Amino acid sequence: SLLSGIVAGYDGSGAEAAVCPPAPYLAQCQQALQGSAVSWGAQDVSRHLSGAFTGEISATMLKDFGCRWVILGHCERRGNHGESNQLVADKTVAALNAGLTPIVCVGESLAQREAGQTDAHCSAQLGAVLDALEPEQLEHIVVAYEPIWAIGTGVTATPEMAQAVHARLRMQLKEKHAQHGAQVRILYGGSMKPDNAAELMAQPDIDGGLIGGASLKAPDFLAIIAAGA
Ligand SMILES: O=C(CO)COP(=O)(O)O
Question: In the UniProt entry, which residues are flagged as the active site (predicted)?
Answer without folding.
Answer: 74 (electrophile), 146 (proton acceptor)
